[in-house]
Amino acid sequence: MWLNLKRIIHLAWQSFSRNKGLSFQVIFIMAVAVFFVASFFVARGIGLTLLTEIEKKVDISIYFKADISEQDILKARDQIALFSDKIKRIDYVSSDEALSLFKQEHQDDPLYLNALDEIEVNPFLSSLNVYSEDPAYYAKISDFFSNEANKDMIEKISYEQPKNKQAVERLFAILRAIRIMGIIVAILLGLLVIVITSNIINLTFAILQEEIATMKLVGASNWFVRGPFIAQTIFYGLFAVLTVDLLSGIGIYFFNLKAGSWLLGFNVFDYFLHNFLLIFVSQLAFVLLLGVAATFLVMRKRLKA
User: Rounded to two decimals, what is the model's pTM?
Assistant: First the structure.
């Protein structure tokens, strides 16, 4: 068994190194496919980080009129909590707490503090700050407090500001587009890998037809004939994955030096290293599953002919 395996690997490597032009074509298309897999993982990491950061920044704050009692505000908080378990927390900030927080933030700025002393009243309103795992609920909460039964309680709702709405809408639009494009590109690249690999294996079979005929005459089984072609496809995949990951690692390292500021501190290179094993296995599984399947189907047809 081990002797046969050694011979299969030797024949596969011989064919792989002898037909450099054909090998390069398969490696190139597989490299494009595995580059997409790596890009998907990195884009996913960046997207999830940006999502988390935007969720922290884009919340909804409901400001109640000055004559609304704390009891009514807390009752409204309990109603919001029933909307969904996606709502992480609801912070009640009284007008006195808001004033205290403002003074703490501007304790070194006498201009603001003097202005507060001059007006002699607390200008801040009590509010509820709502944080949700799914920003889609912000619109529902905004609608809830905009209806006839509740609108008389409300002074303003921060989510109604155009910038907040746009941030949430753009975020979801981008994530949907990435997901759809990812599926489409994966299917197209998968088909391309199958087509190119099948054509190359067909061509290689034609080149080695005399050798294969000789092997069959001396009693070689179909599995022994298939072996070098399948092993050759594995070589294609390994070379493609190793090449792409080496170049990707170098590219991501230099990209990370420039991109840290506008990616909200997300370290792309650390993410790539931390998930390297998962990325490597996913890339290899993607191209080998398609490549070996294409090779097996071609050899099955060829050996029956």
Answer: 0.58
